## 1
Amino acid sequence: MFHHRLIELESELVAKELAQKGLSQLPVGCVELMQYLEQEIGPRLGDKVPRDWKGWLTYQRNKSSLVICRGRSCSEGMLGSCKAGLDVPYGPDTIGEYRRGFDVSPPQDLDHLLLNFGGDDEPRVFLWYGENIAPYKLVFQANLADDPHTELSEAVVEACTWILKRPRHMTLSQYLQELDKHS
């Protein structure tokens, strides 16, 4: 167990370094992977949604990463249509900021996933989990050349399940340890 945990930590450190370097130019495969996830998840930040909508939404940050988090419908004006906003009290404000081209950071009080890319020789895809102000935890990584669509979808579903089921008084690490004890 200890050896496995050390390998996991080393892998996460390497992934953070590669993701921070990013890619000088985002290959078409990266853009296609982000579009694939956007289509799979559904609404994007600012899209029209039904008045009673609650669910998952996506939005791009800096055209090179994708955020996945909980959203809800936010009405525009008294009789306006409803748009998908972040599931926070200031959700409508985030829609306006995003439309004006500002960088919308994931709120500290909203667990989220971040998809980004990096690599030296071959482009790699990374999926990170963020909770409150805790640093991202690596959930998934793969070479882009390996066509990771299916595995990435499964990782997103599993991480979204963690977000929904995790008791609010526990961190992700504590919750996953509890799951391992009962497995």
## 2
Amino acid sequence: MKYAKVDEANPALVICVIDCSKSMDGSHAHRHAFAAINALRKNANSKKKQVRLVVIGFSGGAKTEYKGWCEDFLGIKRMGGSSQTHLKEACDKVGVEYDHHVKNHCNDGNPLVNVLMFTDGSHTPGLDIKRANSGIPLGPNKWAEKTPDGWIKRIADLENVLLGVIDYSGKLPQFPLPTLKIPYRKVTCASVLEKSMLQRAYARDLTVRPPPGQSLEEVFGPIQNLEGRRFIVSSKAIKDNPQVTSAFVRLGTVSTFAGANIGGAGPPMPPDDTDFTSKFKNIWGEEE
């Protein structure tokens, strides 16, 4: 990744995009996603005014639930949702929030950005149809123009952006090769993981140890399993170890929170002691 030096003039941005459909609520995937995001605030306390956080919730539509300094995040109320999944609007909103951050908070045009998506569904095709007030279909609307990848690709392809996807449905493969063809109604253009970033992430676990069972090697295996592959975590890993959500967030934000205090001096990063011992119900999201 190539990005501007992270400081108060060019703060990093973490965007968390959470599927709030009924199936995500039913599987209790929300609980782990929100707990992992809440843990970011503790880490940001050592880097005040250097990391901004945006939380986007989506089901039948997409809405920005929080936007501000990461250390000021106090959590958000549980976000109820419908049975629909407007993944395309969520992807478009990522671009809107990225543009807002660059325009309003950065001196340079290439700040460090980490985008993390938590979802169990594919985009609902019915949301791509314009309807009359009576409900009669009138033809395709603007969302029909592109796939979810098409709506987020201009952001995902930037050198200063790391995009990760954690999929609770079982429809996406874990850490696939970039050439693998996967369902077009999902976000598949996740970033390809670089060796240097993985080495930093794994090294951090040796100096700032997470709770037992939560290290990246325990959850994902050796670095060789991830290097050169897309940053997509599948439901199989989640079922085997519910703590994978915490590991996903730590890996996805290592460029922001790990290392020698991005950009210079400051206190060391506090240990990540988030506890994810509760198990998911045996209910997993189906295709929306």
## 3
Amino acid sequence: MIENERKYFKDFEIVHNFTTYYANGYVEYNIEKGVGGNYEGYDFETVYHIEICYIHLYKLLYYNEKNHCMVDILGKSGYSNIEEIAKDAIWYEFE
């Protein structure tokens, strides 16, 4: 049996090139549940296999010191590498 579960995060910090980025979104997991046994084969237990299947970002922000405001860079041209770095950092943290 496979179930899905989401873990939400807010203001997850990613530091890259002396700039701090903040990510909001969720991590979606696939949870596969099965039945396993012990070494003697008499007792059974529930065995879980959990893996990340998707990372969704709602916002990816950084503080612009020139304008003194937070700027959302999610989906903007020129920032796709920051999105990938953020997803990798989130993947590493939530795995």
